[in-house]
Design a protein that fits this description.
The complex is a heterotrimer.
Chain A lengths: L1 H5 L6 H30 L11 E6 L7 E7 L2 E7 L5 E5 L10 E3 L4 E4 L4 E3 L5 E3 L8 E7 L2 E5 L2
Antiparallel strand pairs in A: 1-10, 2-3, 3-4, 4-9, 5-6, 6-7, 7-8, 9-10
Chain B lengths: L1 H34 L2 H7 L7 H5 L4 H4 L4 H5 L8 H4 L15 H9 L2 H5 L9 H7 L1 H7 L8 H5 L16 H12 L2 H4 L8 H6 L2 H8 L8 H5 L12 H5 L4 H9 L1 H9 L3 H6 L29 H32 L5 H20 L5 H62 L1
Helix pairs in contact in B: 9-10, 21-22, 21-23, 22-23
Chain C lengths: L2 H12 L1 H10 L1 E4 L7 H21 L9 H10 L4 H28 L8 H23 L4 H15 L5 H9 L6 H33 L12 E4 H26 L22 H12 L3 E2 L2 E2 H17 L1 H4 L5 H27 L1
Helix pairs in contact in C: 3-5, 3-10, 4-5, 5-6, 5-10, 6-7, 6-9, 7-8, 11-12, 11-14
The chains are: A alpha+beta, B mainly alpha, C mainly alpha.
């Protein structure tokens, strides 16, 4: 009997039931804590897939003819242009001279770099100012109203 | 049909044979006509300078267009006899005097109708341009030490400007000019400095040209002119630099500085940027600090001094907020957070800093504010996103702390359960 | 629904009771070194964590040079709790190799490989090789600079093996260079070949442990007590596993696994490329071997020595047959030397 008293009193049914109850709820809670992230992980995220070679450059609605816009292409800026005739063109927006961001000029209908007056035509060829090389051109597709730009 | 087809084939074959034969004969005939050149035959045998023309003429652009000695020097190369070949009645001119060289080349190069046959885009006013140049003026006054056509282009063995081996190919121009202009002895009578080449080599333009092999970067002739080479006038400097730095030139011309510089006789761009040794510009050039170029004219208290301080302040504040934002983004990135989007957006702020530096040429603080203001907003937003990323990280850690409490609790419970079970087993 | 009837229905068809009997009968020896018994189970648990998180990652991962890096970046930024799953997968793999090593050395020092358990030891060694292959192949999958060059160096070392080296290198890389082709096949190894092999070997390994019962060190053979596997031992196991989950979550939240920069095959190798820590001792040793050993290439000698060492380690159960006390000391010393060598070389590799 002396030996038994040195141990906890396991034969106490109330105590045992309480322990089982606590254990049960905690196990359920922990399982929940493990399963919750898993279910969240499996549910499709906001952006459905990792775009590496393509990016959404906006919508046709926001891009009237004879205008251009900078968009995020990976971690580089891209330039999407809608020519006066309505054609879509996309280029890297990084000037080949000193890495400034180029822009579309609706008055000259050219791509223009404000830093050193670099000029490119609507095929991305360097036609004036210091730029040594043409701009890298991308492929443009539309999906409904959406403009999708792809690196070739 | 088969008959027709074979007839057609036969005709084609015939035409082909005739064409190829005539090409072969033409080449042979040409080779024979070229071979007969008593000038080369004779001069090749001569030692030293007198033989050089014959030895170096091989890659001459004129020769490749089927022009040979007599087209410039006159005479008759079909004659073997020296006197007959150099007969003045056959138009023999011999070696032109230095003072005659521009006209000697101009004979053809001034003739638009003639030049059009070879290169319709080539200009035909080189001689007239040359006459306006410092070189041309001195030559007219009888100084034969100055550069003429051949000093830069070479004599025999002249190459096209687009030929990388040409002495006037963009990468070789500075060296070509330097052969005279860097020589103290040679330039002594002209009393002009000789350090232009050495200082140019330290410039940002030389770096672009030689190190980055950017052929659009300027070398001597891009600012001084080539055939009409002369120092640009004080008031035309901004126009010259503005060829490439168009925005800066434009802004400067419209700025209050334009009038002031002209009145003071200061050299526009070069007043602040120097001429041959143009260094990469830095922000320290603006403001009221030690290295500022503004304090050369402006003194404490005057309007320009205040504007300079204000401009510098705006750019510095923008740069500081960009730094602050990239620092927090870097920290977030190192803690494993993904911040590529705000990093991308921050690029725009860097871009506005670049733009602001261009706008310095307006010397108007309110113009600078127009780009530094939005730039500051972008940098502030990027900073916020960096903060948000770090906040997310600490949220994760808090979430972890909570779940760890549960886990420890569960471990304790399991431990108690083991004791409880083993207690029962012992009984 | 009558629960008793349902139990009977299930039991008739699946024989659950028979399994229950086995579990009920299973006992774990109790002695001073019982603690080491937990590491096998811990390794198995971490392996299951790998399976679960690995399957989850497969939902979004894309095995190609163009999109691998971006898809991992996508997982840790756009996918909810993606950072957690990925970090746990990375951390758990490292902890698994660690517990595997502990398990192996504890088995070695307790001489649990003695007859009739030789095959358990050998399947265990094979599982170690598989785990390391998992690590090596998985390391490349994010396609970042460090993993790219570590794979290059690692496969270069494999290529230095005489005779089979070059074909082996080409087999591993899927060509002469580390390219997208390497990534595709490493992915194949990592998610298909190795899991299949691991499943079979784990089944055999665990079966053998059950078949022979747990080995007891000779010293305690006559004097040890026993503990019931269920629930006593299993609950203790469970405690360990819960703690492991906590440790993994803590590591993932405090030290998220960095993604680094996307691999650029044409960039020069960055300085100080180091393999994963469990390769470090071999990597470091190869560095210390002179370029020429007698007439042979130093690296080749080193690799052959490691292969011979591995082989020796595998056939230990067949060498250690003596029951003499003196032989035991020899094997213990050998084991300690091996551990010291691994630890010292790893530390040196980290520090330098």
């Amino acid at each position: 009997m002396a030996k038994e008293s040195s141990r906890p009193r396991p034969e106490d049914p109330n105590r045992r039931r309480f322990l089982d109850y606590l254990l049960g709820t905690t196990v359920v809670a922990t399982l929940g804590a493990i399963l919750y992230p898993i279910f969240r992980f499996m549910s499709p995220p906001q952006i459905v897939e990792a775009m590496q070679n393509s990016a959404t450059a906006g919508t046709l609605k926001d891009l009237p003819p004879n205008s251009g816009k900078i968009f995020k292409f990976g971690n580089q800026p891209g330039l999407i242009i809608r020519t006066p005739s309505g054609e879509l063109k996309a280029f890297s927006a990084t000037c080949t001279h000193l890495d400034c961001i180029v822009q579309y000029r609706s008055d000259t209908k050219q791509i223009w770099c404000a830093c050193h007056n670099g000029q490119y035509n609507l095929n991305g060829d360097n036609i004036g100012g210091p730029p040594p090389r043409p701009l890298e051109a991308y492929i443009v597709n539309t999906r409904g109203d959406e403009i999708i730009v792809t690196r070739s | 049909m088969p008959a027709l087809r074979s007839g057609l084939s036969a005709t084609l074959l015939l035409v082909f044979s005739v064409v190829s034969l005539s090409i072969v004969f033409g080449a042979v005939a040409k080779a024979q006509s070229q071979r007969k050149n008593s000038c080369v035959e004779c001069h090749l045998g001569l030692e030293g300078k007198i033989g050089d023309p014959a030895r170096t003429i091989d890659h001459d652009i004129h020769l490749s267009r089927a022009m040979t000695c007599n087209d410039c020097h006159g005479g008759d190369p079909s004659q073997d006899d020296k006197n007959a070949a150099k007969d003045p009645r056959k138009g023999y001119l011999g070696k032109p005097r230095t003072i005659d060289i521009p006209a000697f080349c101009g004979k053809c190069h001034n003739d638009a109708a003639f030049m059009r046959k070879f290169n319709p885009a080539l200009r035909v006013d080189q001689e007239r341009e040359y006459e306006t140049s410092m070189h041309g003026q001195l030559l007219k006054s009888g100084n034969v030490q100055v550069a003429t056509c051949i000093s830069c282009h070479g004599v025999h063995g002249i190459r096209a400007v687009s030929d990388p081996l040409s002495s006037v190919y963009p990468l070789n121009v500075a060296e070509t000019c330097a052969t005279c202009h860097s020589s103290n002895d040679y330039m002594k009578p002209f009393k002009i400095p000789t350090d232009q080449y050495a200082t140019y080599k330290t410039s940002v333009h030389a770096e672009a040209l030689y190190e980055r092999q950017d052929l659009s970067a300027p070398t001597c002739n891009d600012c001084h002119g080539n055939h009409g080479a002369a120092p640009p006038g004080i008031a035309s400097v901004a126009n010259v630099c503005g060829q490439c730095h168009a925005r800066q030139g434009e802004l400067f011309q419209a700025s209050p500085h334009k009038v002031a510089f002209d009145n003071l006789g200061l050299g526009e761009c070069i007043q602040c940027h120097n001429n041959h040794d143009i260094a990469a510009p830095g922000d320290e050039m603006i403001g009221t600090g030690e290295n500022s170029v503004c304090i050369g004219c402006h003194q404490e208290g005057d309007k320009g001094f205040i504007a300079a301080a204000s401009i510098r302040g705006k750019i510095d504040t923008l740069l500081a907020s960009i730094d602050k934002a990239s620092e927090i983004l870097r920290r977030a990135e190192h803690s494993g957070m993904e911040v590529s989007r705000p990093k991308f957006e921050l690029r725009e702020a860097v871009d506005s800093a670049t733009h602001a530096r261009v706008l310095v040429h307006t010397s108007l603080p309110e113009e600078i504010e127009k780009v530094t203001g939005p730039g500051m907003n972008i940098a502030a937003k990027a900073y916020e996103q960096g903060e948000a990323a770090l906040a997310e990280l600490s949220f994760r850690r808090k979430g972890l702390a909570v779940s760890l409490v549960f886990i420890v609790f569960l471990v304790v419970l399991v431990y108690l359960k083991i004791r409880e079970i083993e207690g029962r087993q012992a009984v | 629904m009558n629960i008793a009837a349902l139990k009977l229905w299930v039991n008739e068809r699946l024989g659950v009771d028979a399994l229950g009997d086995v579990v009920q009968k299973k006992e774990v020896p109790l002695h001073r070194h019982t603690i080491w018994y937990y590491f096998g189970g811990m390794t198995l648990f971490l392996f299951s964590v790998q399976v679960v998180t690995g399957i989850l990652l497969l939902l979004y991962y894309r095995p190609s040079a163009e999109s691998a890096f971006e898809s991992v970046q996508f997982i840790i930024t756009e996918v909810k709790f993606g950072w957690l799953i990925r970090s746990i997968h990375s951390w758990s793999s490292n902890l698994m190799i660690l517990t595997l090593f502990i398990h192996m050395f504890s088995v070695y020092f307790m001489r649990a490989y003695r007859p009739p358990r030789e095959m358990t030891w050998i399947t265990g060694i094979l599982l170690l090789l598989i785990a390391i292959s998992f690590g090596f192949s998985g390391y490349l999958l994010p396609w970042n600079t460090i993993s790219f060059f570590a794979t290059k160096v690692g496969t270069d070392i494999a290529g230095a093996i005489p005779v089979i080296g070059h074909p082996l290198l080409r087999f591993l890389r899927g060509g002469d260079e580390v390219t997208g082709a390497t990534l595709t096949r490493f992915f194949g190894f990592h998610v298909a070949v190795l899991p299949a092999a691991a499943t079979v070997l784990i089944a055999v390994h665990v079966f053998l442990v059950q078949f022979h019962g747990m080995s007891v060190p000779a010293r305690y053979e006559s004097s040890h007590r026993k503990m019931k596997f269920f629930p006593n031992f299993l609950l203790r196991d469970l405690m360990g596993w819960i703690i492991a989950i906590g440790v993994l979550a803590a590591l993932a939240a405090i030290y998220p696994w960095e993604l680094g920069e996307k691999a650029d095959p044409f960039a020069p190798a960055p300085a100080g490329i180091k393999p994963e820590w469990y390769f470090l001792f071999m990597f470091q040793t190869l560095k210390y071997i002179p370029a020429k050993v007698l007439f042979f290439d130093g690296e080749v000698v080193g690799i052959l020595a490691f292969m011979a060492g591995g082989l020796l380690w595998t056939i230990i159960p067949f060498i250690d047959r003596g029951k003499h006390q003196r032989m035991r000391i020899v094997f213990n010393i050998f084991g300690v030397v091996v551990i010291l060598f691994i630890v010292i070389m790893t530390v040196v590799g980290f520090v330098t």
